[in-house]
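Example 3.2
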Amino acid sequence: MLEKWKNNILLFWEWLQTDYGMIFSTIVFLPFGLFLIYKNKKINRNVKIGCMTIGIIYIFIFAGVQAKMHNLSITNENQIKEIKNISETLQDKNEVTKTLEKKVSQFNEYKAKMKPYEALSDEDAKKRKIDADAADKVNKALNEIPELALLSVNDKSKLSDVRKLYDSLSDSQKKIIYVTKLTQLEEKMLQLEADKAKQDSEKAKQDAVKAEEEKKRAEQKAKKDSEDAERRKKLAEETAKGYDSGITYDQLARTPEKYDGSQVKFSGEVIQVVEDSNFTEIRLAVNSNYDTILHCSIPKFTGITARVLEHDMITISGLSDKLYTYTSVMGNKITVPSVYVSKVE
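Structure, written as tokens:
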């Protein structure tokens, strides 16, 4: 325990000898000593005043000395930093100098290697110029072809010309050409041609389907025109006989095949009208009886100019045209006699 106290006292004594220790002892112990002198009644008053004065002067002197030492310490640190910076700068300059010397050495080595090429003969130089001109011609033609994204099948002839020019070059001349671009363009052209062939094939199929549809429409129209001509012929033949044939609605409904093409005449109320470019289709309630519905087709070429409207009371004359089937509002299939009309009154 005593040894520990001894060590602590030695450490404290060493610290008191430092700058901060001296400041501490001056601030603490000197005022304490002056205080004891001041309290001692045995000491003369003048002696006390002198001690106090000397103590205060000592404190100011000590503070000034410490401040000066602190400033000197800061100045020394700044000088040390400056010297260190100068040393680092000199070191950097030395490294730069070494780097420059290394580059100069490398340049001299390169120059020594290239020296044999500087002594090329005029014939070699001429050959190099010929090779360069031939390569430039191919490169120029290659640059006139659009890039991959803009290439089209219309550029095929230009691409073929470039390939011919390239194939005509010597091996040394071909080394100057960026042949990868030419190869990429040729591969792209093959793809474009394949796509175009596919499109042409699809278009040919579509055209064939369209032509077939037009052919069918033409055949249907020819068939319809033929049927219309046949009806007009029958109509003309029956016209001479007259429409007051006495054929009834019940006869047309029960035996339509028997009276197909026969002249008929009916009166009644129009209950529905549907018009298109060639016919006016009406449904006629014979004698205003909604249980005896007659389908009537009025062709536009008959010369009937007045339009037929719903709820009109009319008399139609024409040829029996078998039966007509339509779908009612309720969705049921309804079949009624049909008449090809030649006259409306």
